[in-house]
Design a protein that fits this description.
This protein is α+β, with helices and mostly antiparallel strands and 218 residues long. Helix content is 26%, strand content 36%. It contains 5 helices and 8 strands, in the order H-H-H-E-E-H-E-E-E-E-E-E-H. The chain has an 8-stranded antiparallel β-sheet, with helices on both faces. Strand 4 and strand 5 form a beta hairpin. Helix 4 packs across helix 5. The termini are far apart.
Amino acid sequence: MRWLTLLPLLLVAEPVTPVPVIPTPACVACSVDLEEVRSGYSMADWKDLALGQVVITKVDTAATDGGINTSVQTSAIIPRTPAQVWSVLVDFDSRPDFTPGLQESHTRKIEGNRVWLDERVRVLWVNIRYHIIDTLAPDRGLITWVLDKSLDNDIKESVGSWQLVPLSPGPQTLVRYRAHIDTGQPVPGFIESFLVKRSLPKLVSGLRDEVERRYPQE
């Protein structure tokens, strides 16, 4: 049969571009000032963190235009080492597996300590595509990002960070996520409330679940 002669061609796989690999750092969060970080939490918030709860606060940071950005900070304690948490965070292409709303995350390029990502999120049935540049500072346990404005994005601004802080007695890691996102459009209050009260806690708890899944304690 003629179609059998085409079978070898059908079985030839398309060439796959290898996913760039993030080098394993010598240390993660080894230069973090715990006392400085601890001073940013109230006693009530710290007690909630110790009980395993996700704590949400608002933080004002300086904007690039000289103004003030109000960022939402989400914190939680993960009972694993900073190195283990870091390894999951920098596995960028797998993030949709455990990040609510994130449909795609593709590593486009890696140069030194910077990573270029193409991402797509889905919020209330709306797809939003954007491109970000991550900067890695493993000794500080810090991953920061900015919007890659050299490309077209469906949002006006996105800046934020992941911060890892080792805690004693270990292994324990305080994880802090900050984000400021400007869609460029007026956002109804109920959507903002939905994102803060539901999506952000799930984002951090999703990371915690994934870290615990990859590094089960015996």
